[in-house]
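Re: that backbone. Tokens:
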């Protein structure tokens, strides 16, 4: 029996309150087999003491049955998700009043990163948190459009930009500062400077979460952003196919370079379900699930391809505003937000 067998066995344990298992959540950090001794280490970020107890009990129920081992040890490291992130990156500073800054990134464009950022921000706000959303894409800003915001933001007496308030969120987008269809001609070092300045000059006020929608890719601008503000962590958005996963891995290693933890992966465009209920995995099946397991990070959600998601984005009313009880796409974003709050 090897570590893969143990991992398979642990897959039968669900994270309390969720339909997903503890392996795909990325909780299993280490499995060691030494003759007939088995040792498993899990890491759980939660405020609820019941959760680790329940998982501990279930791990023993599963592992104690395995005939190959005379001794089974389950260690669970419990981390406080409310603890402030230490500014891991040198030179990065926090934004006054903002508790957690979370970057949403993808190595590749067009995978639905802005869609995910918008819906995740709304779903986080639905938990009662104070949430801001900042579109950091100088060349293809889309957050303003996704919320149907066209008004120009005003500045306060300190010459800070006042974010627009919509659907209980504070949003700021370079798109709101630009004329529609105006060509964006800033490049290179100037683009980096604009972005830095933009990040520092918004009057966010008190926020529990600030979601930064990073531009796609892993170039200079992205690296500048993650080095400018002290991030609590990053969420990576990918689609299931290998070409997207290759770029998602690049994003993961960019964050590793600056010691920013990956809070989870979101697989977008996971499948399309026809009226008869049959699922078509247009971009292959399970790519995001396997990647999350490989990276040992939680898969926060699998988001299907659905017309209401693209329509919601085009019409300024993202799908997470719909009732999660009757709209599965909305439910997927609300689940991801709950996971981000509870697990991290
Ligand atoms: P990115 O920010 O990665 O470039 P966007 O969020 O702008 O990607 O999404 C690209 C397009 O795909 C948009 O038109 C968006 O509405 C659409 N889209 C994204 N995710 C989904 C989905 N799950 N179902 C349907 N359409 C989607």
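Recovered sequence:
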């Amino acid at each position: 029996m090897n570590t893969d067998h143990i991992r398979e066995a642990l897959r039968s344990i669900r994270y309390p309150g969720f339909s997903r298992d503890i392996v795909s959540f990325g909780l299993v950090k280490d499995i060691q087999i030494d003759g007939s001794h088995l040792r498993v280490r899990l890491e759980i970020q939660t405020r609820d003491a019941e959760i680790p107890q329940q998982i501990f009990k279930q791990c023993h129920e599963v592992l104690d049955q395995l005939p190959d081992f005379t001794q089974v040890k389950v260690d669970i490291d419990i981390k406080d998700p409310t603890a402030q992130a230490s500014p891991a990156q040198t030179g990065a500073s926090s934004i006054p009043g903002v508790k957690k800054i979370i970057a949403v990134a993808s190595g590749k464009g067009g995978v639905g990163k802005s869609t995910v950022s918008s819906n995740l921000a709304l779903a986080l706000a639905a938990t009662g948190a104070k949430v801001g959303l900042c579109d950091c894409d100088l060349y293809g800003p889309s957050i303003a459009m996704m919320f149907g915001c066209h008004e120009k933001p005003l500045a306060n007496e300190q010459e800070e930009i006042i974010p627009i308030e919509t659907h209980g969120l504070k949003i700021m987008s370079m798109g709101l500062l630009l004329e529609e269809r105006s060509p964006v001609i800033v490049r290179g070092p100037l683009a980096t400077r604009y972005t830095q300045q933009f990040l520092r000059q918004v009057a966010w006020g008190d926020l529990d979460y600030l979601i930064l929608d990073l531009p796609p890719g892993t170039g200079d601008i992205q690296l500048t952003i993650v080095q400018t503000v002290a991030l609590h962590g990053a969420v990576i958005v990918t689609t299931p196919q290998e070409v997207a996963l290759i770029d998602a891995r690049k994003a993961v290693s960019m964050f590793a370079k600056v010691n920013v933890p990956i809070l989870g992966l979101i697989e977008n465009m996971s499948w399309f379900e026809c009226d008869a209920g049959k699922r078509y995995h247009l971009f292959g099946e399970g790519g995001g699930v396997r990647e999350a397991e490989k990276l040992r990070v939680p898969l926060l959600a699998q988001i299907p391809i659905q017309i209401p998601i693209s329509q919601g984005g085009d019409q300024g009313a993202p799908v997470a505003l719909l009732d999660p009880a009757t709209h599965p796409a909305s439910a997927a974003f609300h689940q991801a937000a709950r996971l981000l709050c509870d697990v991290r």
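Residues 242-257 form the longest helix (16 residues). The chain has a mean pLDDT of 87.
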